[in-house]
Amino acid sequence: MSISWSRTFYLSVLTTSLLVLTQCGGGSGKRGNQVSEEATEPSTASAPVAETPKAAPKNLKAKLYLEASGSMFPYDAAGSTGEFDEALQKLLTEFETQKSGSTELFVVNDNVYPMGVSFQQLVEQPNIFTLTKGKGDSKHTDFSLIFKTILSDLKEGEVGVLFSDLIYSTESTTAQSATKILADVETLMQTTFAPQTKGKSLLLLKLNGQFKGTYYPHNGGGKPYSGSRPYYIALMATNATMKALLADPKFESLSRFSELPGFDSFHYFTSATDNLPFYTVLLKDAEQAGQFEQSRQERKERSNIVHTLENIKADRKTQGLTIALGVDLGGFYLPESYKTDPKSYEIESDEGFKIQKIVAENGPEGYTHKFLLSTPEPQGGGKREITIRLKRKFPPRWITQTHTQDDSNPNAEAFAETTFGLLNFTRGIEKAYNPQNADTYFAISLTLNN
């Protein structure tokens, strides 16, 4: 949908982290609640039990949670270029288009407060943070309380949307080392998210926007800064609602996150257990080499899905074998560059099969990507398997590059690109979603039988 946005409304979906912290500060420059627990590393879920798939919602509703703290106000201050406000309105507008007046608006800092205005009033306000005045304590942000409230209040068809800079600090950070602070935030994220991971998913978006005002470092004090700064949109929803948001064509206009002003990167956290992808051998693909056919048993069962091949013969010219495999990767919200990179996969085969290439291709069988699997010397004889696994990697490069342990100097070269403690913040969430530290998203297998 191409719309000319001047000050139209936008929306963004919030599904990210829970903390018992205090983020961006005003006044005294403090921004987090203290926590004293340990953190753990990424995993998937111990002995996951398949969920009963829930019906996709007919409509989606947004619940906006706007962090009102000292280090957030400068994103929409007088003289700023307005990327923050534009992204917020653009995201929310798409939800409002589905059902006018459905969006709920909240202010968050030391607690969660109703904003007390309509969406139309939000759109018409030159500085959206003006609407947050008198709501809570802008010196402290209790992440744990905020995220627990958001997650526990989510119903099917609702998307929680948090706008925040995700910077953790406590009232006592001036007396603590950065190491202690970051250990606390990692633990807090893990323990806050752990009870919610089975039924809810989180999509974290990184954006950049113009910042003009006072920045409050994690260890207190305020320093003037004018320039670009990262901020984040955390979208949370039940697994069924999130799946609909990201994959249902009916809601495609709601998930064009890359079109938001200042969009940079994203990472998806989920422990949904219904993500084994559809896959099938493409028997008539023009790029296959050699001869083979669907197994007699599958033909007997009148199956349109081909997982087992028989009567396999090498290509007469090359003496090699190339199999085209269609895989539906639509349920895996990962960068397209990651999905199509053969290095993102492990392939196990006694015959030396390699992934020759992967291309995005929507086929009538229901696949989204075509894999070409090749071996120069098929051995033949007997029953053997090819197994493909999609690697689960954390942290993605953008999180590592955006993380810093020192945000005290706004004049530092990396200041415009980094967020204090982002790696620890997100690693705590990953540990909650992936407690067994699983290193793959799925494994699919083909059987070859001569």
The main β sheet shows up as: 7 strands, mixed
Shape: elongated
What percent of residues adopt helix (DSSP H or I)?
10-25%
**SS content category:** alpha+beta
Rg over C-alpha atoms, rounded to the nearest angstrom: 24 Å
Order of helices and strands, N to C?
EHEEHHEHEEHEEEHEEHEEEEHEEHE
Strand arrangement across the biggest beta sheet = 3-2-1-4-6-5-7
What is the overall number of helices?
9
How many β-strand runs?
18
Task: Give the mean pLDDT.
Answer: 86
* Portion in strands: 25-35%
User: How widely separated are the two ends?
Assistant: 52 Å
Low-confidence stretches: 1-51
Task: Note down, in words, how this protein is organized.
This protein is an alpha+beta fold. Helices cover 19% and strands 27% of the residues. It contains nine helices and 18 strands. Strands 3-2-1-4-6-5-7 form a seven-stranded mixed β-sheet, with helices on both faces. α4 packs parallel to α9 (422-433). The longest helix has 16 residues, at 83-98. Residues 1-51 have low confidence and may be disordered.
Keywords:
single chain; 450 residues; alpha+beta; seven-stranded mixed beta sheet; five-stranded mixed beta sheet; 9 helices; 27% strand; disordered N terminus
